[in-house]
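pls ignore typos typing on phone
diaminopropanoic acid + seq
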Amino acid sequence: PPVVRRTDYRPPAWLVPDIALDFDLDPATTRVAARLEVRRNGGHDAPLRLDGAGQTPLAVRVDGQAINDWRIEGEDLVVPLGGDAHVVETEVEIEPDRNTQLMGLYASGGNLCTQCEAEGFRRITFFPDRPDILSRYVVRLSADKSRFPVLLANGDPVASGDLPGGRHWAEWRDPFPKPSYLFALVAGDLAVNRGTFTTRSGREVQLGIWVRAADLPRTDHALHALKLSMAWDERVYGREYDLDVFNIVAVDDFNFGAMENKGLNIFNSRYILADPDTATDYDYDGIAAVVAHEYFHNWSGNRVTCRDWFQLSLKEGFTVYRDQGFSADQGSAAVKRIEDVRGLRAAQFPEDAGPLAHPVRPDEYLEISNFYTATIYNKGAELIRMMATILGPQAFRAATDLYFDRFDGTAATCEDFVLCMEEASGRDLSQFRRWYSQAGTPRIAASIEHQPGGGRATLRLGQHVPATPGQPEKQPMVIPLRLRLFGAETGRPLTDEQLVLLDQPAETIVFEAITERPVLSINRGFSAPVIVESDRSAADLAFLSAHDDDPFARYEAMQQLMLDTMVAGAIEGVADHRPVVSAVLNTLEDAELDYAFMAEVMLLPAESFVGDQLAVVDPEAVHRAREALRRAIGRGLLDSWRHLYDVLQQGPYAYTPEAKGKRRLRGVALGYIAAAGDPEAGALAFRQFEAADNMTDRQSAMTVLANGDFAEREAALDIFYNRYSDNGLVLDKWFQTQALSTRGDTAAVVETLAAHPDFTLANPNRARSLIGAFGANQRAFHAADGRGYRFLADQLIALDRLNPQTAAKLLPPLGRWRRFDEHRGTQMRAELERIVATPGLSKDLFEQASKSLE
Ligand code: DPP
Ligand code: ZN
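k done
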């Protein structure tokens, strides 16, 4: 397949300022008539070239006349045109029912819906399907009225009416020019939860959350989150909504989490539907975050869009940064930051260290769907955060205002964004731009030396950016490090917090009048997405975990202490657990801390993150070391855990920050009681499982049971399955919990579950709940006999035939073969080779598998 390169960008030869679409909708055969008003862009004599995928034109007309000198090249429709402005009409037929890729127009749960980002629109009609072509859309839909009583599209509704033969029609008009990837329609039998929002300039917007009727009671949380998001974007970024209606539709079959189509967001139902019985606190938080994310795209993505797909992080990194800010403002900012960093370390750091590493602004791709990655989204958000840190809040807001005003209604680049940051602040970000072009997670070496008599402390900082595919040599980055020194004896801060911009390979910073031995608190708030290697002792880390005034740094110190302990355990087979146990006790006894924060601090880093610290990952040794530490924390503090478990018991369910914090910490306590080997643990967990009036408590109890050998284990899984067998989203949890189990038989259990009647590759959520979760389970996936690798490859080859995009997303665990021993690595490579050699492979899976072999 051909490589697409960033430097090959050329402005479009033809523009399409206006388009009218007419859909004669039917699941088996939908007829699409398109009327494009095209305009020659600049002096050239190139024909009009329209992207297509899978259709053949039934008719082509130019200025009202049927023509026959059009031709098909590859999948493009090429139309020779003589003048500078023409009307080009095409008609095609497509088959939504047979669309298993879930790109373009497809059927889900009896309804019809679309997904066009990145290149799905070409599967609907012939069009120059690139984000720098902005058009005003008028869309007419007609369909059978009883099967599809609701007809929605982008923009505002214009008119509707009945047709003969039990059909009806509706017309929608979107006045804002938009790229084709933001096009959407929905036809279905849907119920709506309506609300209104009055913008700050006094316009009333009609809001609607559309779902199947039975799900209506699960939509209040999403509607509430939408209103909060609309108010937040006005307050924090000065951005107001611009249409008269804003609709969200939930569908069960969806590749992404959700999609920000102008005025008509389409969501994976898992990011809309919630009630206490079926959704956990994490689900509630995730829903609010994704509703906010897609809403915020209305400005960062829709009003200002991307010039080409290499600029994807322009909208995604920025919008993730915006949704993170929104979530931080809804509850504990410290806990939100911890969760985001945990996610970055779980997904983005391994990506940046592996064969699929790519810059935040990539240079080339085979298939753009493969670049909706943690690097583009989450590292991209860290880049925006670093610029906000460097500029300070006022200049940053001035810069985003400038960006939105200057580029409103256009397709922009990452460079445009950085230029606005510079212009509004007067700062030079030349060297900072390397964050966009260089892949790899920088490593920072930090050590501090103190002259006890003289009072002078010398901090030495060094940076190193590792080689990544295609980038053997790296230049130094600008790394904003918030840091502070604390006195090891008194626990008092010895300096103010400083923001150091490390921009050299090595730098020395001198502090005078340091009267006691200093302990270094560095990368506070995770001010840069880097790995810090310091020589801080276990005692210093324990000290920081108790005394640091930056909540993230406290968490980080504890994590580092736990990590060092598990790494020692994995390498040497034994480790001194006492510093961790006493640091955890200190945290438990700190009355100032809120519950959610305590829970985060006391959770052990995941096995995969421990593995990332080793030269060669030994999954069994990591598992043993982690379990040993869990047992030591459980046993050493069993009375405290039992006490905590009792006092954190709550009355009826409430969704408040305090109640959420209690549930989270109580879940952690239950986990440690079980880890201690308490003979009562199984019964305790089962009681919680049965008595729970909410999914958070029920699932945390089931997880404890699923990870152990308890007599109650099977019963809990069966009860859960039977209780929720008609709710797909909850069944996903049932599959996922088993696929994530830390037990030794998990690989075999997962194989059995893949043959379960409720398992299907056709639904992306279900596929991810089993196969995705299994790939993230280091111990089970890397079973020494290679059965995990074989299983994943089999599943990916099967899934690729249905849905290449989702298959390719699940491949990365196989690509990490360099990190494992020869025996495992050889088996992983063999499976990758088997995938690459599969006839008819998609370019999505081919790109990921072949790059993983390099
Ligand atoms: N819908 C996806 C997102 O919002 C892609 N734009 O990130
Ligand atoms: Zn997005």
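The longest strand covers residues 167-178. Residues 293, 297, 316, 319 surround zinc ion (ligand 2) (CB under 6 Å). more later
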